[in-house]
């Protein structure tokens, strides 16, 4: 009986030792290939803000990285000096006069085009659209190109045909992420000259958690076409929330202190393939005391098992 117990104990110890070695080998393999953990937290989470888009990036040489690094360091120090100067001057805007427009993006400024990024479906090898952002003969920003709904036949992509411009991430000196603070305004103002197409205005408000990285507030920009400029005024209360292109059931007003990007999109939906052209002189903000609406859309409370608004 004692011999049987001894053999059983030895077998259990041997089994536990094999299982431990297997777990160690599995951990080493997973660390190299399968499981990616954050450098900040040992969790199964990685920072991926493109949400599936895989864009090839060609890295420069080490020498070029060093040269670019010193150049950026000089620019960041200069930006930090300006921030400190603005902080010590301490001259905030306390009175917002009705009818006065504070311009945020002005294409007449020097290096205005450097603040924007142009993307199309072709950049991700999903379609054949093309777009550019240039200065027009009138000195305004000209967003133009050609949208094509023909997509790549790879069995994954179903619909495509879009072009988009978006401002770069708001940052303070030394690449610190920041946000726009538009809490004192209630109206978006744009001076544009379009081609009759409808464009989509995008206000990105990505938060800290990855669930909020794709939160975008939209509203449609209707253009008249023709040679005349038009002034467009859109209350922020009219914007609606979407994530990854899907309008969300639970809506609410924009957190105007968390806006990170401003963008415009055009699509080839409903057989609208072909050229497009949108000229933008400026994009600004205004406080209108006659607009007291905080959120334009009425929400209904439903049971938890009913997904509707």
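-> sequence recovered:
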């Amino acid at each position: 009986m004692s011999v049987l117990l001894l053999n059983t104990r030895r077998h259990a110890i041997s089994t536990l030792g094999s299982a431990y070695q297997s777990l160690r080998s599995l951990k080493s393999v997973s660390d190299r290939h399968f499981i990616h953990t954050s450098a900040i937290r040992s969790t199964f989470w990685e920072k991926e803000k493109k949400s599936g888009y895989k864009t090839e990036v060609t890295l420069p040489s080490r020498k070029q990285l060093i040269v670019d690094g010193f150049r950026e360091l000089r620019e960041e120090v200069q930006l930090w000096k300006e921030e400190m100067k603005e902080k010590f001057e301490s001259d905030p805007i306390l009175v917002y006069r009705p009818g006065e427009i504070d311009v945020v993006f002005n294409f007449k400024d020097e290096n205005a085009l450097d603040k924007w990024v142009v993307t199309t479906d072709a950049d991700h090898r999903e379609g054949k659209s093309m777009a550019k952002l240039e200065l027009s003969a009138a000195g305004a920003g000209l967003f133009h190109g050609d949208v094509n709904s023909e997509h790549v036949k790879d069995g994954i992509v179903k619909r495509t045909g879009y072009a988009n411009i978006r401002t770069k991430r708001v940052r303070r000196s030394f690449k610190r992420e920041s946000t726009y603070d538009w809490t004192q305004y209630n109206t978006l103002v744009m001076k544009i000259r379009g081609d009759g197409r409808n464009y989509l205005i995008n206000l990105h408000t990505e938060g800290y958690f990855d669930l909020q990285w794709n939160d975008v507030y939209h509203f449609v920009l209707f253009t008249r076409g023709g040679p005349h400029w038009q002034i467009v005024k859109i209350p922020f209360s009219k914007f609606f929330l979407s994530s990854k292109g899907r309008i969300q059931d639970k809506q609410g007003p924009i957190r105007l202190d968390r806006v990170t990007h401003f963008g415009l999109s055009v699509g080839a939906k409903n057989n609208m393939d072909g050229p497009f052209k949108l000229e933008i002189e400026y994009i600004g903000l205004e406080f209108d005391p006659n607009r007291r609406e905080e959120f334009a859309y009425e929400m209904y409370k439903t049971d938890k098992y009913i997904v509707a608004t």
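The chain has a mean pLDDT of 80.
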